Amino acid sequence: MANDSHQRAAEFHNLAAHAHQAAITHHGKEDHLTGHELSRQAMEYAAKAFQFSKAAHKESAAFAKKKKPKK
Questions:
Q1: Is the pLDDT assigned to residue 69 strictly greater than 80?
Q2: How many domains does the chain fold into?
Q3: What are the start-end ranges of the E strands in 1-71?
């Protein structure tokens, strides 16, 4: 289960990076409307990546607690 959250977070981080790069390209070509739309999309992907990262961190912490040897 934790692997799924880590994988989804990585996918959204990659999507955000790609959308940011595409936005930069469009802004450079003075296609500001498309650039702004891609920037908005990149922010949405980044927000989703953050949410999945938080979930993955929480799941990993819970898993680590279970695996901790008892003294």
A1: no
A2: 1
A3: none
